[in-house]
From TrEMBL:
It holds the Pfam family LysR_substrate. GO terms for molecular function: DNA binding; DNA-binding transcription factor activity. Gene3D superfamilies: Periplasmic binding protein-like II, Winged helix-like DNA-binding domain superfamily/Winged helix DNA-binding domain. This is LysR family transcriptional regulator. SUPFAM superfamilies: Periplasmic binding protein-like II, Winged helix' DNA-binding domain. It comes from Caballeronia choica. InterPro entries: HTH-type_LysR_regulators, LysR_HTH_N, LysR_subst-bd, WH-like_DNA-bd_sf, WH_DNA-bd_sf. Belongs to the LysR transcriptional regulatory family.
Length: 307
C-alpha cells in the first residue's frame, strides 16, 4: 500500500509539472519540448489530472491553451510544491556528497552601496565554507547573467519602465532621484527644463533606458531629449564628471546627499519629478532555491535599504 501511495504522489507531481509547463509556454507542443516528452503524453497527463480533480483546468483553442480559473489557482500552488520538492532533493544531495554550497550573486554598481555589505557578512557567518561569488556589474550584464545561469540571484535598482517580466523581482525598498549641478553653477539659478535641456547631461544607467527616463521625467510636456548625454556607470568617475561646470547629473538622493553636504554639488529644484527606483532581488522564475540561496535572500531582506 505504501508503494502504491508513493507512486500515486509521484504521478501527481509529474502532472503538476506538466500543467506548470503548459502555463509558462502557452502551448502543448512547447510544454512537451520543455519536458522532453511527446505531445500525446502531455495531453494524457492533463486529462488524467482533470479527471482526478473533476475540474476543467485548460481551455483549448486554435491559438493555443489558456488556464481556467481553477487552473490558475492550481498552477500558483503547484509552483510552490514543485520548487519545494526540487529544493529538498538539492539539499539531500548536498548532505550526501558533503559538498560546500555554491552561490553566484550579481550586484549592480549602484546597489552595491545599499545594504549589501551587511547582507554578505551575515551570509558568511552562517555559511563560512560556501563558494560565494559576488560580481559587481552593469544592468545589461545582470540580465544576461540571469538568462544564461551565470548568476543565481541579483540585486539591482530597477525603474518602473524597465522590462523585468521574465524574472521574479522582490522589492526591497525604493529611492527617489534628483538632478544636480556643481556648487555655484549658473544653471542652479534658472532650473527650467527648457534651459537644462541644452546643458551637458550625465546619466548613470544604460543609454538604452534614456528615452524612457526622459519621457517619465517630462510627463505630459513634450520636450526633445538633451542633445549631449554622457553615460557613466563608475560611481567615482561619475562624481568627478558631475562636478564640472555646465553638467546636469542624475542622482539617487541617498548618494547625492553626501556631495551636497560637502558643498561639491547642488540639488536642482525643478518643476518635474524624476521616476523612483526600486531596489529589487531578481532571479529566474524556474530557480530552485538551495538552503544557501534562501538564507542569502533573508540576509538581504534584513539588511534593508540604506547607505
Amino acid at each position: 500500500m505504501a508503494i502504491a501511495n508513493a507512486y500515486e504522489r509521484a504521478m501527481k507531481t509529474r502532472q503538476l509539472q506538466t500543467l506548470v509547463a503548459i502555463a509558462e509556454r502557452g502551448t502543448l507542443m512547447a510544454a512537451a519540448e520543455a519536458l522532453c516528452i511527446s505531445q500525446p503524453a502531455v495531453t494524457k497527463s492533463i486529462k488524467e489530472l482533470e479527471t482526478q480533480l473533476g475540474l476543467q483546468l485548460l481551455v483549448r483553442s486554435g491559438a493555443g491553451v489558456r488556464l481556467t480559473p481553477y487552473g490558475e489557482v492550481l498552477v500558483r500552488r503547484a509552483r510552490t510544491v514543485i520548487a519545494e520538492i526540487a529544493r529538498a532533493g538539492q539539499e539531500l544531495e548536498e548532505m550526501r556528497t558533503s559538498a560546500d554550497p555554491a552561490l553566484s550573486i550579481g550586484v549592480s554598481l549602484l546597489a552595491a552601496s545599499a545594504g549589501m555589505p551587511d547582507a554578505l557578512r551575515a551570509f558568511r557567518q552562517r555559511f563560512p565554507a560556501a563558494q560565494l561569488n559576488v560580481y559587481e556589474c552593469q544592468p545589461a550584464q545582470i540580465v544576461d547573467g540571469l538568462r544564461d545561469g551565470s548568476f543565481d540571484l541579483c540585486v539591482a535598482f530597477v525603474a518602473d519602465t524597465d522590462v523585468t517580466a521574465e524574472f521574479r523581482v522582490t522589492p526591497l525598498g525604493s529611492v527617489t532621484q534628483s538632478l544636480a549641478v556643481s556648487s555655484g553653477d549658473a544653471l542652479a539659478k534658472e532650473p527650467l527644463l527648457s534651459t537644462l535641456r541644452d546643458a551637458h547631461w550625465l546619466y548613470n544607467f544604460a543609454r538604452e533606458s534614456v528615452p524612457a527616463f526622459w519621457s517619465a521625467f517630462c510627463g505630459a510636456r513634450e520636450l526633445a531629449r538633451p542633445r549631449r548625454i554622457s553615460v557613466c556607470t563608475s560611481q567615482r568617475l561619475y562624481a568627478d564628471l558631475a562636478s564640472e561646470p555646465g553638467v546636469v547629473s542624475v542622482w539617487t538622493d541617498f548618494l547625492l546627499d553626501e556631495y551636497v553636504a560637502r558643498g561639491v554639488l547642488a540639488r536642482l529644484d525643478v518643476d518635474a519629478s524624476l521616476p523612483r527606483l526600486t531596489l529589487g532581488l531578481m532571479h529566474r522564475k524556474d530557480l530552485v532555491f538551495s538552503a544557501a540561496a534562501q538564507y542569502f535572500v533573508e540576509c538581504v531582506e534584513r539588511a534593508g535599504l540604506h547607505d
